[in-house]
Design brief:
By secondary structure, the chain is mainly alpha-helical. Helix content is 93%, strand content 0%.
């Protein structure tokens, strides 16, 4: 269960970072 939790957290962090990057890219376009 702990291993699953770590993988899940990692995936969430990666999704968050990817979302941040695309948000910044969109913000710079305007």
């Amino acid at each position: 269960m702990a291993k699953y939790d770590e993988k899940f957290k990692l995936a969430v962090v990666q999704d968050y970072e990817a979302g941040n990057q695309s948000y910044v890219a969109v913000a710079q376009r305007h």
